[in-house]
Specification:
single chain, about 200 residues, mainly beta, six-stranded antiparallel sheet, three-stranded antiparallel sheet, about 0% helix, about 50% strand
């Protein structure tokens, strides 16, 4: 609110809703569930008590001028946001590193069960993928300090039926060419000694 002389005006409002979620039998988190913005029909409205949110008995009462803005759909056990959406808009998913300290990918227009990402930094399963065969050899990685060395497999399970885009960076190191297979089917050849981005729809 702002004051002009003896009058007080409301120029905007946001209401945050939280939801208590059980992580374990003895631990709960208060996660942000949704945000609402106040619909103001003019630039400034006279402030009255009707704009105030309050608890009446066992009910939470807020002004009917508030409209839903953002929904925060899912969190992990550390309280990291995994999926959110604006009202009447697409879903956005966030993938975190193995320790849950930093986000490593943000995907628009996809629910969290449809996406996966890894840069192989942890040498373990990461970002929805299961893999083996990582290396930290100097000079043989696109970013960070590790990469997949091609001996073994990278897999994911539990995806709903449908078409998916698989994208990755690759290069040849010890030979003139190499190949990659997806779902057990040879899908392409790698001939470049420099890093190159490949993308396949399956």
């Amino acid at each position: 609110t702002v004051k002009s002389g003896s009058k007080e005006y409301i120029i905007g409002g946001q209401l945050n809703m939280y939801k208590k979620e059980a992580i374990t039998t003895s631990r709960e988190l208060d996660n942000l569930f949704s945000t609402y913005h106040l619909n103001i029909s003019s630039d400034q409205l006279s402030y009255t008590s009707s704009f105030m949110s309050k608890v009446s008995g066992t009910s939470f009462v807020y002004n009917t001028g508030y409209y839903p803005k953002t929904y925060f759909d899912s969190y992990d056990t550390l309280g990291n946001l995994l999926q959110y959406s604006n009202a009447d808009d697409y879903k956005t998913s966030i993938i975190w590193d193995l320790l849950g300290n930093r986000p490593i990918a943000k995907v628009l227009n996809a629910t969290k069960d449809l996406v996966a990402f890894t840069s192989f930094e942890n040498g373990l399963n990461e970002g929805g993928w299961t893999y083996s065969g990582c290396t930290g050899a100097p000079g043989y990685y696109k970013s960070g300090s590790k990469c997949f060395n091609g001996y073994g497999s990278v897999s994911i399970s539990g995806l709903p039926n449908g078409s998916y885009i698989i994208g990755f960076w690759a290069r040849v190191v010890y030979s003139s060419s190499g190949s990659y297979s997806i779902n057990g089917v040879s899908s392409g050849t790698i001939t470049n000694s420099d890093w190159k981005y490949y993308e396949v729809t399956k």
